[in-house]
Structure formats: C-alpha cells, structure tokens
Write a structure and sequence with these properties.
Distance between the termini: 10 Å
Shape: globular
Strand content: 35-45%
Radius of gyration: 24 Å
C-alpha cells in the first residue's frame, strides 16, 4: 500500500543568496551522467547524513540516526548503479547545518565532489516522517532538484529509495529503478531435496518476506504491471499449474482447470491477460487467458515445443523460444499468433527471452560452449551481444528502466544459486544479497 507523499519545493534560500547564486555562478556545463557507455568513471557525489530540521525537538537522537540511515541507503543505491561514487564521510571538510542554507561549495570542490545532496529530516505531530533534500551541482553552484517526502516511519527505506530515484533521474535523464521489489525462488536444503519457496524483497535485499511455506515446489514467478499480483508455476498436490498470488490478501488461485501441465506464465503489459505454455503428450504450445472472462485462446499449434512467451511493451508482439527449426531458437509473432518469424541465428541454443520495457531489446539465456550466458539482441535479431560469461547464468529479468538486468547464477563447484545484476553495457556486475540460495528472479515495475 502506497503511503509516501512527494512534493516539489522551491528554493528557500534568502533573496541575497539567490542573487549571488545567479551573479557569481562559475561557468560550467550542467552536470550529466552518460548511461549509454560502459566503464565510465563514476560521478563523485557527497551525501552527508540528513540533518535535523528542529535539533531541540523531542526524540532528536532517534531522528538523527534515521537521518544517517536515509543518507546511507541513498548512497548504497547510487553506488550499486555503477554510475556514482559516494565520497566517504571522513573526507568531508564541513557538514551541512540545514538544507535551507547555501552550501560552502569550495569545501566540496576541495574533495572533488561534483554533486552534493543536502537533506534534513523532521517528524510531524502525527508521527509521520518528513524528509527534504536538495541536489546541487557543485561546480556550477546550482540547485538541480528540491523535493520533500512524507511517510509513515516504517516506510523510511522506501523514502530513501525514492530520493535515490530522483537523483538518478535528474543526473542521467532516465527513470531510476531503486523503489522496486524482486520476487524470486528462495532455495534451501540438499541438492536432491531442494525446498523452494516463493519470496519477495526490496531490490537491495531488505524487507524479505516468504510467500509460500516450501511444502510444494514453486517456480518462475512474474510480477503484474499493477505490482499487486504475481503469477507463477506451482506443484500443489503434485499438479504443475499456473497460479495467481495477490500480495494484498495473500490469496492464490489456479489459472484454468487444464487437464495437463501449464507453465512459463507472464502478464500482458496491461495486466488483463496471462500468456503461458500448456503441455500435452510431450508437446507444448502457447495459450493466452483473459483474466476477466477466463476465456482461453490458443496462439501456437505446432508439434515442436513452444514456450517462454513474453509480450512486447506495446502488447503487439510476442517473443518465445521453440525447437521447431531443429534446435532451441527465438521467434517473434504477432499477438494473435500469426506471422511467426525466427530471430536468432547464432551458434548455440536460446531460451527464456524477455522483452525490454523500452521495447528496443530482447534479453535471453544462450546455451553453448558448455556455458549458459545472458545476452541481448534487437527484436529483429540483429545486434546480438553477450553480457555475462560464467558457467551457468539464466533467467534474465529487466529493471523497469530497461538499463539493468537481474538473473541467477549456478556455482558448479557447490551447486549454490545466487542473484546477480548487470548493466546493459555489460559492466557493473553485482551480487544481490539473499539469506538463502536464490533463483528465478523477476523485477517489479516502479512502486509508484
């Protein structure tokens, strides 16, 4: 349930300071981070602890600790993107006394900071937290953004993620992806008796919650565009079927009373349909279900195995993998199942395609040279690039801005599985912390 409130606020500095800001501003290009290049030098950014707006107020010590927490989460989010380098607190020559006071820019230039975040925190009489922050271009001595958030105390981490998203968007020109969740399969136990539970957490690994008890096998969870439902494969009663899970109520229901196995579900971009595979006598084809009428439409009819369908963001096309050409390859068809065409022609086999939210790329798992690797190609099959090069990487899922992918990796020595992210440029590969082994991740849309 959304409980965050965001408001823009205007420059509150004294008029004289504002005039000096315009008259004495050093000549400098506006601060900007290029997200299209790999291996660029991360932008040095200073993010001091959010200061108290009313230092003498009751509960000041607790609030001051929360101000430190806010800054730490914002810094961690930005650092994980690989585009920013938060400067250590020990390097600071001065610390802000208030977000309403013009920073001493010379002190921040002296430690090579190019961007500065100055925030302050307060508590309303109702108990809700209030956080304000300003993002400054240190060289140009110019405020780039100023925002105020209010939230219930329990939502302070979301508040920090939203602030990180604001900073990311202002400095890169693209939407952030920090105020999001990851649903995945949490794995425990020996290799031959793995317990697999449906789990959900914030994108940075915090606020973990298990959604199933592990008594029944669950696989391939996928978020709905509304962020409130998850579709997944479960073996309840040893019957493999596609289910819907409502995050608000905790209730789940089977999708359709099919006599055979259904699997590989995924929502349509408008959230009104679920596309999935249905297996019958060793063959599988792709079907689509209207969630309101529960009417089912068959989209493919071929003796080969057609599976892993994923819609384009405009809902007009579907990518899937099939062995109809003799080996496992990627195909694209119209949303009504017509005009099927093969798009992958490289060496090896292709699986688990997923269309980027931007519509410009399709991510996939490529199998060949005794490895499973994550790659991307354009929807017409051109421009194929492999982004990872480990023993076994599988099941990519896009961040909502289409710039980062999450996937899972199998360690061949231990059999352990873990979650990883990688930038679209193929750099900044990072492990996502989870308390147990983890697989089959799916990234949510932005929570607002």
């Amino acid at each position: 349930m959304l409980r965050l409130t965001r408001r823009w606020f205007t420059l509150l500095l004294p008029a004289v300071a504002a005039l000096l800001l315009v008259a004495g501003r050093p000549a400098a290009a506006q601060l900007r981070v290029d997200v299209t290049r790999g291996m660029l030098e991360p932008l040095p950014i200073a993010i001091p602890a959010f200061v108290l707006k009313r230092p003498g107020a009751a509960g000041a010590d607790e609030l001051a600790r929360r101000g430190e927490d806010l800054a730490a989460v914002v810094a961690a989010d930005l650092q994980r993107s690989g585009l920013f380098r938060p400067l250590p607190e020990e390097a600071f020559i001065s610390t802000p006394a208030s977000a309403d006071v013009r920073p001493q820019f010379a002190n921040w230039r002296a430690i090579a900071a190019q961007a500065l975040v100055v925030g302050q925190i307060d508590r309303e009489p109702s108990g809700r937290l209030v956080a304000e922050f300003r993002l400054w271009d240190v060289l140009a001595e110019q405020q780039l953004v100023g925002l105020r958030y209010t939230a219930e105390p329990a939502d302070w981490r979301r508040m920090a993620h939203r602030i990180a998203d604001d900073i990311y968007e202002r400095l890169t020109g693209e939407k952030g992806y920090f105020d999001t969740r990851i649903v995945f399969i949490a794995e425990t136990g020996p290799k031959t008796q793995r317990v697999k539970r449906l789990a959900i957490m914030d994108q940075d690994g915090f606020n973990l919650r298990y959604l199933t008890d592990g008594k029944d096998l669950v696989l391939t969870p996928r978020f709905s565009p509304t962020r409130q439902e998850i579709t997944y494969l479960a073996y309840y009663g040893n019957k493999p079927r596609v289910y819907l899970y409502d995050l608000e109520t905790g209730k789940h229901e089977v999708l359709g009373d099919f006599p055979n196995m259904t699997f590989a579900p995924r929502f349509s971009p408008d959230g009104r349909r679920v596309i999935m595979s249905l297996a019958d006598n060793g063959n599988s084809d792709i079907y689509e279900m209207d969630l309101q009428t529960r009417r089912v439409r068959r989209l493919t009819d071929h003796p080969a195995i057609d599976t892993s369908p994923s819609y384009s963001p405009d809902g007009r096309y579907i990518v899937f993998n099939s062995d109809r050409g003799g080996s496992q390859q990627l195909y694209v068809m119209e949303a009504d199942g017509t005009k099927i065409r093969r798009i992958s022609f490289g060496d090896g086999r292709y699986a688990t395609p997923v269309w980027s939210p931007r519509g410009d790329l399709i991510a996939f798992t490529k199998m060949g040279e005794q490895k499973f690797r994550i790659g991307v190609m354009r929807p017409d099959g051109s421009g194929e690039r492999l982004l990872t090069d480990a023993y076994q990487d599988e099941a990519p899922s896009w961040a909502p801005n289409g710039r980062v992918l999450i996937f899972f990796r199998l360690d061949p020595a231990t059999g352990a599985t873990s979650l990883w992210t990688i930038d679209l440029t193929g750099y900044n590969e990072r492990k996502v912390p989870t308390p147990t082994d983890a697989s089959d991740p799916a990234w949510s849309p932005l929570l607002d």
